[in-house]
Structure formats: structure tokens, C-alpha cells
Design a protein that fits this description.
single chain; 610 residues; mainly beta; Immunoglobulin-like; 4 domains; 5-stranded antiparallel β-sheet; 2 helices; 47 strands; 46% strand
Length: 610
């Protein structure tokens, strides 16, 4: 006979429990996150006619505090079956109370901002059973519906239940075996586009061989008996299936193919794997949402299977606000947090630390592989001397002694030969014409691939040597940027004083003759010229001006010659005389006479003469 060791139960308690399962308060779904069942053998009783094994059962269940569903079943119903494969017989139903309840920390990394919409509560059930040692396995199960309806990787999550079970093999009964137990619960919240590395290792008291694999979570029950779907909650399609009626084996959850499966529970792109012998789970999730994941650990003794513990849990993948991020000034981003730093002609490099947020950074560790030695530094912005031209690898680790608030940037350093941008120019400072530019640049690589001249007039020239005619006089900042085969660059800027005197002095007056007083504008059409030049006008009547194009008023009649002198800022001089150029005539005097004088009403006719 199979007995439960916890003596707090009686027929009255069983009756009360059956009634509790039917109350509307518990007939809710949408709350299960995960769970696992373990067993520990407390001893073998050989005093009677039949050998009995005493096991302590531990069931951990995890629920969504914000899921809008029921609290933990208290007590919870467990079914015990004997058999193997797909043939199982019900033996007994057990009722166990919640031993403890606690809230799990959502995120134990102080450098990741914790989401406010996630809450997980853990309920623990611990009880003892005594069973005859038989030649078949025992299967202990807990069935319950339902999972969160926001799960994205399985079909119809809102009506998909969960089964948590553990198998006790005949050999496990005979040797009084303890099942393996997982050491840690997976992180509740993981960050999208951030590598996930979780040690899913389990411990085993006897030191048996443990083998890990991704496996398919199983389901039982449905939504019958909820407020939304009235019916019998204890049926195999109800929220609390009756273990006596709903026997193993149970259905697998249905993943949304082809992107999701038991082997790719976070999506194909995430590349989820678990190491067969260490239990190390790795992934790089790219899709946000809630995902059902199954992990199984198989326990072997001398190659014979003793037990299988299946963990069914839920990952919440979100876009995290990471508070610590390793970042370095660079010449090129290879990929996320992998940087290329290029040095051309300088073996001594000062690294620029751009890491954030400094409020959460306590220490830095720089490591550089220089070939014969590894150089380290704890400075924020270290200066490292590399031995020669070549390629080197390094990394920056933020908070290296922290397991949580830690981040790493990989550095690829290329030390190349120097490159020097240089050129010379030549032009006649006194005659307007082309400026000739000759490239004198040098690269230790021997190959310069690109020349880029910025001529300070919105013109760009790609030739190494060239001539250029500036439109206007001024200080011209001419920049040459050269790039060699190593993508090394250098720049040289020279301020060129371009102030030649005009090759011709050209003046166009607004008129060549006028009446006194004559206002005449002298348009200076000489090129090149600017306000930087010294200008002197002589208007022939003693008057002068120093602007480029003056307006002048002649007060006296006469014929006047006009002279213009131009001196450049560099001292070059030119002039021109315009003889007898402007004629100023007398202004006319208006006058007339009339008769008779005076004009009267008797003699109204009047004649006018100029």
C-alpha cells in the first residue's frame, strides 16, 4: 500500500480540498511560469514483507504575480502512477499544502534597469511518500492550466496547461537514489540583442553522471471551469485535472514552427544551445516577448538511466536599459563592442575611454597582448607603447571584479608606418594667374591612394599636382588630405596670401559729361581687387578718394583727367591715367520777359520772350 507520510491529512481535509477546487476564486488561469519536481530518498524500510522506499518530494512552482490568475493551489493535487513508456496506472492522489511562498528578484544585475511590469512568486511544496520497491517506474505529476496568454512561441498559450513530473526508476528505488536538483533558477528577465550565458548545472548527491538537453515542455488540462469557460474544472480539459482520470502520457506543447521549436525556443536567430555535460545555456535573443523553454537533466549510473528531471520555465526578453557600457574611441566599429584603433606612425597610443554610466563604474582593466608580454592598466585613459608596426589585440573590462556590473569591449589595434601630408605652391604675387600646387606627401607604406584638396572656394580636386585660379583675392586656407593603402590619413592646411594686382585697370564712369555740379560714380572693374588693397583716386580737380568704386561731385566747369592707383597687400603696384575724361559744363540759367507789363483786365493779352 502506498502512504503519504504527512499525517495532517484526513478524510475531512480531502473533502474540503475537493470543494475548494470548485470555488470561483481559484478557477482562473494565465499565471503559470514554470516549475520542477525533485525527490530525495529518506531510506528503505525492509522490516515488513515488502521492501518500502521513503521519498521526500519537493515541488517548486513559479507563478506570474501580475498574470491575473489564481494563487498557488493550497493544497495541490499530485498523481502517482506506476508503469513505463506510454503505459501508466494510477496508484494514488496526494494533497500537499504550500510549505513556503516568496517573491523572486527580477534582476540581480544592478547595472540593468529593472522592468516594473514583471513579478514572479515561488511556491514550494514538500511532502513524503512511502512506496513499495517494484520492478516498474513511478511517475509523480502535477497538472494545472494555464500559462500566460502573452507567450509568443507556442500555439494557444492561454489554454495550454503545464505538467511537472519526475520519474523514479526501479533502480532508483532499489539503491535509494536522490534525483539531481538544479542549482539556480534561470534569470526572469533577459536582454534582447545581448548574449545570454546561464549555468543551468544541477547537483547530484551521489555524484552520478548528468546529461543535459533542451526538451519539449508538456501540457495537460484546459480552460474548463474558469469564469470565461464554465464546465468541470476536474476534467482532463479543466483547469485542475483529476489525476485519477487524467493519466500519462501527456501532450507536448505545440511550438509555432518554423521559427520556434524545443531546440530553438527563443527563435532560430537566437541560436540557443545547452552544453550536454556542463549544462551551460547560451543564446543571443533578438525577439522580445515571453517564451516557454524546457530543460531536462538525465541521471545515469554505470550507463543505466536512474531519473529524468524536467524544468519548464519562461523567459521574458525585453529591451533593457543597460546602465554600464564599455566604449572606446575608435576609427571603426567592427561590430557591437568590437573596435578598430588605427595608429599611423605613432607606437605610443593614448586610448580614449567613452564608457558609461560613470556613476556605476568602480574600476577599469585594460589588457593588451604585445606578443612577448601582456600589458595591463587600471587607468581610465591609459597610454600604451607598442613595440613595432603590426596588429595587436586588447580589451577594456569595466568593473572586472564584479559578477553583475561588468562589461567588456574588444580592441583591435593596427600600428602602421607614418604618413605625412605636405605640398608646396608657387604663383606670381604681382600678376593675377594660376597657383601651381606640387604634392610632397610621404607614406611609409610607399603607396598613397587618395589626394583630396579643399581649395577654400567650394571646389575639391583629386589630383596630386594641379594648378588653380582663384576667383577673388583673400587669405586662402588650402587643405590637402592624403590617404594611403593602410587607410592612414594626414592633413596639411596652409594659409596662402593670394593678393595679385589686376592685370588691367578698368574703370567705367556712370557718365562722361554733366552739368555743374556733376555727380559721377566711378565703377572699378579691375580684377582681382578687394578692400584689403590700397586704393587712391585722383579726380583731376584736387579731389581724392580711397574706396574701390567711389561717387564724386564736380563743383566747377572744366575738363578733368582721372587717375587710379592700386597697391596690393603684398606691395605690388599698378596705376592708370584717363586724360581729359570728364567734362563738366555750366548749368543753364532759366529767364524770360513778358509784355505788356503790367497786364490789366483792359489789356489781358500777354506775350512772352525767352
Amino acid at each position: 500500500m502506498i502512504k503519504i507520510k504527512a499525517r495532517i491529512y484526513s478524510f475531512i481535509m480531502v473533502l474540503i480540498t475537493a470543494i475548494m477546487f470548485l470555488t470561483p476564486e481559484t478557477l482562473q488561469a494565465k499565471h503559470i511560469i514554470g516549475g520542477e519536481v525533485y525527490y530525495d530518498c529518506l531510506g528503505i524500510d525492509s522490516s515488513g514483507n515488502q521492501k518500502l522506499a521513503i521519498f521526500q518530494i519537493t515541488f517548486n512552482m513559479y507563478r506570474d504575480c501580475f498574470g491575473g490568475g489564481a494563487a498557488f493551489d493550497d493544497p495541490a493535487r499530485f498523481g502517482l502512477y506506476s508503469g513505463s513508456g506510454s503505459n501508466w496506472n494510477w496508484q494514488e492522489t496526494f494533497f500537499a499544502p504550500v510549505t513556503s511562498e516568496s517573491f523572486l528578484p527580477i534582476n540581480d544585475d544592478p547595472c540593468v534597469e529593472e522592468p516594473t511590469d514583471v513579478c514572479v512568486e515561488k511556491g514550494v511544496y514538500v511532502f513524503e511518500i512511502t512506496v513499495p520497491v517494484i520492478d516498474e517506474s513511478y511517475l509523480l505529476t502535477y497538472q494545472r492550466c494555464c500559462r500566460n496568454n502573452t507567450i509568443v512561441n507556442i500555439e494557444n498559450p492561454e489554454s495550454t496547461g503545464a505538467v511537472f513530473q519526475v520519474e523514479i526508476s526501479p533502480l532508483a528505488q532499489q539503491i535509494c537514489n536522490d534525483s539531481p536538483t538544479f542549482d539556480n533558477f534561470p534569470p526572469i528577465v533577459i536582454c534582447a540583442n545581448t548574449p545570454l550565458v546561464f549555468d543551468h548545472k544541477a547537483s547530484d548527491n551521489e555524484g552520478h553522471e548528468l546529461v543535459y538537453e533542451l526538451c519539449t515542455p508538456i501540457t495537460s488540462g484546459g480552460t474548463l471551469g474558469t469564469n470565461e469557460n464554465p464546465g468541470d474544472p476536474n476534467s482532463c480539459f479543466g483547469v485542475t485535472p483529476n489525476p485519477q482520470l487524467c493519466l500519462p502520457t501527456y501532450d507536448d506543447v505545440i511550438f509555432k514552427l518554423p521559427n520556434f521549436s524545443s531546440q530553438n525556443p527563443l527563435g532560430v536567430a537566437a541560436g540557443t544551445t545547452i552544453n550536454t555535460f556542463s549544462g551551460l545555456l547560451t543564446a543571443n535573443p533578438t525577439i522580445t516577448g515571453q517564451f516557454v523553454v524546457g530543460v531536462c537533466v538525465k541521471e545515469y549510473r554505470n550507463g543505466e538511466l536512474l531519473s529524468v528531471v524536467q524544468r519548464d520555465f519562461q523567459f521574458n526578453v525585453t529591451q533593457c536599459q543597460i546602465l554600464v557600457y564599455a566604449d572606446v574611441g575608435n576609427d571603426e566599429v567592427i561590430k557591437e563592442q568590437e573596435f578598430l584603433i588605427r595608429s599611423c606612425g605613432e607606437n605610443e597610443i593614448t586610448f580614449e575611454n567613452l564608457s558609461e554610466d560613470k556613476n556605476f563604474i568602480e574600476a577599469y582593466l585594460w589588457e593588451f597582448d604585445l606578443g612577448n608580454e601582456t600589458v595591463t592598466s587600471n587607468l581610465e585613459n591609459p597610454t600604451i607603447t607598442f613595440p613595432d608596426i603590426g596588429s595587436y589585440f586588447g580589451q577594456l573590462i569595466i568593473n572586472p571584479d564584479s559578477d553583475d556590473c561588468r562589461d567588456t569591449a574588444k580592441l583591435f589595434i593596427e600600428v602602421f608606418p607614418e604618413i605625412i601630408a605636405d605640398y608646396e605652391y608657387e604663383y606670381d604675387t604681382c600678376v593675377a594667374g594660376d597657383v601651381v600646387f606640387d604634392d610632397l606627401s610621404f607614406s611609409g607604406s610607399g603607396i598613397i591612394l587618395d589626394w583630396e584638396w579643399d581649395m577654400n572656394e567650394e571646389d575639391t580636386i583629386k589630383n596630386a599636382d594641379h594648378s588653380y585660379l582663384f576667383d577673388t583675392p583673400d587669405i586662402k586656407s588650402v587643405k590637402l588630405k592624403v590617404t594611403d593603402i593602410n587607410d592612414c590619413t594626414d592633413t596639411k592646411i596652409v594659409d596662402i596670401p593670394y593678393f595679385p594686382i589686376p592685370s588691367q585697370v578698368l574703370v567705367e564712369p556712370s557718365t562722361f559729361e554733366g552739368c555743374r555740379p556733376a555727380n559721377i560714380t566711378f565703377n572699378n572693374l579691375s580684377i582681382p581687387i578687394s578692400d584689403a588693397y590700397d586704393i587712391l583716386w585722383d579726380f583731376g580737380d584736387g579731389g581724392q578718394d580711397t574706396v574701390i568704386s567711389p561717387r564724386y561731385e564736380y563743383q566747377e566747369t572744366g575738363i578733368y583727367s582721372v587717375g587710379l592707383e592700386i597697391t596690393s597687400p603684398l606691395g605690388c603696384y599698378t596705376s592708370r591715367e584717363y586724360p581729359f575724361w570728364i567734362q563738366v559744363k555750366p548749368s543753364p540759367i532759366a529767364n524770360f520777359s513778358y509784355s505788356p507789363d503790367p497786364v490789366t483786365s483792359n489789356n489781358p493779352n500777354c506775350s512772352f520772350q525767352r
